[in-house]
Amino acid sequence: MKGNNPYLVVIVIQAIYAAMFLLSKAAFDHGMNNFIFVFYRQAIATLFLTPFTFFFEWKTAPPLSFRTFCKIFSLSFCGITLSLDIYGIGLIYTSATLAAATTNCLPVITFFLALLLRIESLKIKTTSGIAKMIGIVACLAGAATLAFYKGPPLKLLSHYHLLDYHKSLQHQGPPSGAWIKGCFIMLLSNMCFGLWLVLQAFVIKGYPSKLLFTTLQCFLSSIQSFVIALAVERDIEQWKLGWNVRLLAVIYCGIMVTGVTYYLQTWVIEKKGPVFLAMSTPLALIITIFASATVLGEIISLGSLLGGFVLVLGLYSVLWGKSREQIPKATLDMEQQASGILE
Q1: Lowest-pLDDT range, 164-168, 267-271, 285-289?
Q2: Rounded to whole angstroms, how far apart are CA atoms 25 and 256?
Q3: What phi and psi, each to the nearest 5 degrees, are found at residue 160?
Q4: DSSP for 95-147?
Q5: Does pTM top 0.85 for this prediction?
Q6: Strand, helix or coil for residue 152
Q7: Chain centre distance of CA 336
Q8: Does residue 196 contact residue 106 with C-beta atoms inside 8 Å?
Q9: C-alpha to C-alpha distance for 85 and 327, rounded to whole angstroms
Q10: Residue 70 predicted with pLDDT over 50
């Protein structure tokens, strides 16, 4: 493979996520129940991944103990079912742009949770520790900006949209109270997903079959989300899928997001490492900003751009601190000696 392929792949990954934000928002705005959406999404993902699991890992997978099964069940509930259900509620209250913006704080939230669980360390007196601390503060500042400051709308973007969709909402947007509530709900969703990222590292050590592990989580999540959706919505009409954006959204999220991006992200991490993948996250925000304005006609406010920008700064600050820690000590000593000579 050519050396520039990982760069193209991360663009494809972030474009897939941007389309997920847009299609999910469109489906919810067209009246689809977000709990039913999660069930259909996870059920389709399970059907998509099952044949690959049987073909590639069924014979080589280790036996599944009851204890490991319970751990996977809990992980599925916290990191997938609960995270996606909460995310859907937050997206209804806010916008696709805000959903993409808050994704940038996920690595920061994951690091903070790992710090609380004593998986990560934070040395305040070191350069890397200061960078991490700045990243956490920037994440909080960016989240506060998104929630409490909307600012003037950017008319240059809101005047041009390809569809008549959202025309009725274009001049008013969500109420202020609903927007603030949606911001914090979205951050809660990211916290659940971050906790899932941290805890699954322990589980996958005892059950290393990654594809079967993922498929099993999707299957358990589809059962969990079905129970929740059935308890919340019993109107049979809400469960029907026609040939519209609702069907497109669940198929796309089930196959492209859960299925295709799983393989692509694994490939990128293998080639370039997790930091390289995390650094591409702002691409989804950029794509979503322009697509939501031009396709959905969403109002993009100055506050959304400023908050997203601060979150991106926090993301890169934490990533820089993490990469700094991974540099061998001998290399750091050489850098310090060189700077001392120059001074």
Answers
A1: 164-168
A2: 16
A3: -115, 110
A4: -HHHHHHHHTTHHHHHHHHHHHTTSS---TTSHHHHHHHHHHHHHHHHHHHHH
A5: no
A6: coil
A7: 37
A8: no
A9: 39
A10: yes
CB 142 within 8 A of CB 107: no
3-class DSSP state of 301:
strand
Q: Residue 242: which of 30, 68, 85 has the closest Cα?
A: 30
- pLDDT band at residue 301 under the 50/70/90 scheme: confident
Among 43-57, 119-133, 181-195, 242-256, the range scoring the smallest mean pLDDT is 119-133
* Mean pLDDT (the chain, rounded): 80
Closest by CA to 105, choosing from 139, 130, 149, 147, is 139
**Closest CA relative to residue 15, chosen from 203, 301, 291, 274:** 291
**Mean pLDDT throughout 295-324?**
79
Confidence of residue 37 (pLDDT cuts 50, 70, 90): very high
What is the rounded distance in angstroms from the CA atom of residue 183 to the CA atom of residue 102?
8
Give the residue with greater pLDDT, 70 vs 59. 70
**105, 187 contact by CB (below 8 A):** yes
Count of C-beta atoms within a 10 Å radius of residue 79:
21
Q: Which two tokens stand for residue 61?
A: 């997978």
CA 335 to chain CA centroid, Å, is: 36
What residues contact residue 155 under an 8 Å CB cut-off, 6+ apart?
none
Task: Report the alpha-carbon distance of residue 125 to residue 297 in Å, rounded.
Answer: 47
The burial of 258, by beta-carbon neighbours within 10 Å (0-12 exposed, 13-18 middle, 19 or more buried), is given as buried
Per residue in 238-280, pLDDT (tens digit) is 888 888 888 999 999 989 987 788 778 877 876 776 667 777 8
The burial class, CB within 10 Å (0-12 / 13-18 / 19+), for 133 is middle
**Number of C-beta neighbours around residue 280 at 10 A:** 18
Nearest alpha-carbon partner for 49 in 170, 191, 219, 168: 219
Radius of gyration of the chain (CA): 21
- Judge contact between 110 and 319, C-beta under 8 A: no
Question: Tokens in use for 326?
Answer: 């991974």
The dihedrals phi and psi of 301, each to the nearest 5 degrees, come to: -95, 160
